[in-house]
Amino acid sequence: VLSLLAVICEEIVEDCIKCGGLYFFEFTSCSAFLLSLLILCVYCTDVYETFREDKVQRVNFWAMLAIGGCFLLASIVLAVTSSGSTVEKAACVFGFLASVAFLAEIITEYFHGQKQNVSGRSANPGNTHGATENQPLNKQS
C-alpha cells in the first residue's frame, strides 16, 4: 500500500529540476508495487501449494530484500535530487516508509524461517525412521 501511495504521489509531480532521481524513483516504486502484488497473488492462489511453502518463502525473502534495498536507494536518490515541492516530499516520505515496511517483512520472514528450522528438528535427527520403516514386512492379521 505504501509503495502504491509513493507511485501516486510521484505521478502528481508536475515539473522537476533534476528529473533523473524522480524517474528512478518512479520505476522502482512501480516495480515494487507490482512485484508485491504478484507475491500476494502467489500466496492467495494454488500456486503457493504447487511450488511448496519453503520455496515460496525463500523467493519472497530474496524478492523483499531486493525490493526493499532498491526502494531505499531510490528514496535516498529522490531526497537528494528533489526540488523541494510538497508532492515530492510526500513521495519521498512514502518511499522511506515503504522501505521500512519491506525491511520489516525481511526481518519477519528471517525469524519465521529460523523458528521453523528449530521446531522442525527432532531430538535424534541421525537415526530417525518413518512409521512405514518400523512395520514388519510380513504383517499378519
Features:
141 residues, mainly alpha, elongated
Question: What secondary-structure arrangement, pairings included, does this model have?
Answer:
Blueprint: H1 2-12, H2 19-44, H3 47-50, H4 53-81, H5 86-120
Helix pairs in contact: 1-2, 1-5, 2-4, 4-5
Describe the structure.
The protein is an all-alpha fold and 141 residues long. The chain has helices at 2-12, 19-44, 47-50, 53-81, 86-120. The chain has one domain (2-117). It has five helices and no strands. The mean pLDDT is 80.
A few lines on this structure:
With 141 residues, the chain is an all-alpha fold. It is 74% helix and 0% strand.
Low-confidence stretches: none
Report the total helices.
5
Helix content bin: over 70%
Q: Mind describing the biggest β-sheet?
A: none
Let me know the number of strands. 0
Mean pLDDT across all amino acids: 80
Distance between the termini: 61 Å
Strand content: under 5%
